[in-house]
């Protein structure tokens, strides 16, 4: 896949799946705008990737920061072709009966409203350009309840519906919208899950998790016409057919 001349904005690019995606997309020739709260981490990654990358410190739970980040991306690269809504948090991990209401709401602000903020800021720009690709990182938790994860499950279910809504509203105008459910990935998030000791995901062995490079490569493939059969849907990286197609073994 050659993304030369294309620009991708990646939320949550300071580590994990987002950072791996930045490396894979830059390797494919794309300009990349790296968003996260950890300004040092995205500045280091932008330095590694060179002129193709800019670091834009941004908290996705604040719409005005996301809007400003899209403007910074347009100023640097002149266009926005791909939005990767990846930023996410897993905490609070707590039973519904004891969850802190403020912390519960903050997770929704990041995982659900953050995805909306990215779409809201990017879609008018993409429409003006005649189209674009919007990919959101989903999860098995969008469709399956897990003990202690009410905020995370509810946020991912909401983000999965937002993905479908964006497809319904935008497909006719050239917006390609899809979700990617990666399965479990060896990132900091899984360290937090392991430390909680709650529910079967925390009991998994580290070797059960796939490397962050796998979802990154799947996201790159999703930017091309080869994935068009899945528009408006969610692709699961647990699906052996998809893994085979992408050579992920
Ligand atoms: N790991 C898994 O097994 C797994 C499975 C299914 C889905 N996912 C999803 O994949 C995505 C990436 O997760 P990961 O595994 O790579 O986790 P991670 O290593 O913890 O990375 C999370 C990223 O999100 C960013 N982030 C968190 N809050 C943010 C905010 N308010 N504003 C901007 N950026 C924010 C973090 O950057 P800062 O802290 O610097 O802001 C970081 O770059 C998430 O949506 C997660 O739900 C992960």
Automatic annotation (TrEMBL):
It comes from the Bacteria. CDD domains: SDR_c. The keyword Isomerase does not apply. InterPro entries: NAD(P)-bd_dom_sf, Sc_DH/Rdtase_CS, SDR_fam. GO terms for molecular function: oxidoreductase activity. Keywords: Oxidoreductase. The keyword Hydrolase does not apply. Transmembrane segments: none annotated. Belongs to the short-chain dehydrogenases/reductases (SDR) family. This is NADP-dependent 3-hydroxy acid dehydrogenase YdfG. The lineage of its organism: Bacteria, Pseudomonadati, Pseudomonadota, Alphaproteobacteria, Rhodobacterales.
């Amino acid at each position: 896949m050659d993304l030369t001349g294309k620009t991708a904005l990646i939320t949550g690019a300071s580590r994990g799946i987002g950072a791996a995606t930045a490396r894979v997309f830059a390797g494919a020739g794309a300009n990349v705008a790296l968003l996260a709260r950890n300004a040092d981490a995205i500045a280091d990654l932008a330095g590694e990737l060179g002129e193709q990358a800019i670091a834009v410190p941004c908290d996705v739970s604040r719409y005005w920061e996301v809007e400003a980040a899209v403007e910074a991306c347009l100023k640097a690269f002149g266009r926005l072709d791909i939005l990767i809504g990846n930023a996410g948090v897993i905490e609070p991990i707590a039973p519904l009966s004891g969850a802190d209401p403020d912390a519960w709401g903050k997770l929704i602000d990041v995982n659900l409203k953050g995805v909306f903020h990215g779409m809201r800021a990017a879609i008018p720009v993409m429409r003006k350009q005649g189209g674009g690709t919007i990919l959101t990182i989903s999860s098995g938790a969008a469709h399956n309840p897990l003990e202690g994860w009410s905020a995370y499950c509810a946020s991912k279910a909401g983000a999965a519906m937002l993905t479908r809504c964006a497809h319904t509203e935008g497909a006719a105008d050239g917006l390609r919208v899809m979700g990617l459910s990666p399965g479990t990935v060896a990132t900091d998030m899984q360290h937090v899950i392991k430390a909680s000791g709650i529910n079967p995901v925390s009991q998994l062995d580290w070797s059960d998790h796939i490397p962050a490079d796998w979802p990154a490569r799947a996201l790159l493939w999703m930017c091309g016409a080869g994935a068009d059969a899945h528009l408006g849907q969610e692709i699961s990286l647990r699906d052996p057919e998809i893994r085979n197609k992408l050579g992920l073994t």
